[in-house]
Automatic annotation (TrEMBL):
Its EC number is 1.2.1.38. The active site is at C143. Residues 2-135 form the Semialdehyde dehydrogenase NAD-binding domain. The keyword Transcription does not apply. This is N-acetyl-gamma-glutamyl-phosphate reductase. Its main location: cytoplasm. Pathway: Amino-acid biosynthesis; L-arginine biosynthesis; N(2)-acetyl-L-ornithine from L-glutamate: step 3/4. It holds the Pfam family Semialdhyde_dh. It is found in: Cytoplasm. InterPro entries: AGPR (IPR050085), AGPR_AS (IPR023013), AGPR_dimerisation_dom (IPR058924), AGPR_type-1 (IPR000706), NAD(P)-bd_dom_sf (IPR036291), Semialdehyde_DH_NAD-bd (IPR000534). Gene3D superfamilies: Dihydrodipicolinate Reductase, domain 2 (3.30.360.10), NAD(P)-binding Rossmann-like Domain (3.40.50.720).
Amino acid sequence: MEIAIIGASGYTGGELMRLLLHHPSADIVAATSRNLDGTPVASVHPHLRGLTDLVFRNTEAGDIDADFVFLAVPHTAAMKVAGTLAERGIRTVDLSADYRLPKDVYEKTYGVTHEAYFEAPYGLPELHRDEVRGASFVANPGCFPTGATLAAAPLAKFAHTIIYDSKTGVSGAGTSPSATTHYPNVGDNFNAYKWTSHRHLAEMKQEAARLGSNARCYFTPHLLPVNRGILTTAHILLNEPTGQDEVEALYKKFYADEFFVRYQKPTLAAVRGTNFCDVAVESEGDRVVAVSAIDNLVKGASGQAIQNMNLMCGFAEDTGLRSAGMFP
Ligand SMILES: NC(=O)C1=CN([C@@H]2O[C@H](COP(=O)(O)OP(=O)(O)OC[C@H]3O[C@@H](n4cnc5c(N)ncnc54)[C@H](OP(=O)(O)O)[C@@H]3O)[C@@H](O)[C@H]2O)C=CC1
Ligand SMILES: CC(=O)N[C@@H](CCC(=O)OP(=O)(O)O)C(=O)O
């Protein structure tokens, strides 16, 4: 299957190529960049040197010649080309936020007008597999909502309050430098940001509601001095006290058939570079602490996007995604 990546010079674009180069049914035929036309992909993504001869091209969406497209561009840039790809019948996974929320919620959360809205399945396969399967356009979830929602999903409908406390690596901010990501501000340091107002809370609330939960949801992200990974501690305040054995059994049953969700004490090292989400729970009566770990660039973005592509195209869901992490 011929694949094009729009926005291939960024972190998620590089990660899509790293993973797709080992996918038996994927042939990457185009890697677009507005500014790097003619530049070898390996000059920006040095880990891919020797594995691909691809060269960036400044190709418009209307001129893309491929069976499948990944949109790895910022929100608002994706909506400018999504319609063109859909009209041309090119199946697409959008890694941006543009199609994850209803139009009114999106516009309120992101403070912009949506120019080209249509409904799309929310590509968290563990919860929405049937909608993703066979779809022609899928909205890939945000990185924080992926780890947070998988941490709370089995208990969400039994909770009155869920507090998500997440710690993320810096690659979540993309390749553009900023004061926040400047090394002396990040290295040997640790801080919370957007304490009560992060835009990903809207996705977390949406997914809790879809799980039948009336719980109030809260979210605070923190910036870790590491490149990759998100560790989320979810404090799930239950309507009724529930013991450890029961809670643990519930999680193991909920995820029993999910290859990419493993029940074990989460650490970032065990999931780095992989599409796994590790989850475990500890009960304290009417409070359960659920912890999850993902790699923000893999299960939080490009790996999940390929998982969605596999479902959309009828490939085995784990195709190209079975690699283990590097431990330690
Ligand atoms: N990083 C992460 O962990 C995650 C990211 N995402 C989402 O995935 C998308 C890509 O993220 P990421 O790879 O980190 O971002 P980057 O900033 O690293 O890369 C995005 C690329 O898109 C291109 N681009 C930037 N602005 C525009 C524009 N206005 N129109 C067209 N192309 C543009 C740039 O390439 P060039 O200048 O060469 O054209 C840039 O390299 C974003 O929507 C992000 O929110 C989702 C989950 C996790
Ligand atoms: C460290 C860091 O800055 N992380 C980003 C992750 C957001 C992201 O990638 O998400 P969208 O796809 O929804 O834009 C942030 O907190 O905004």
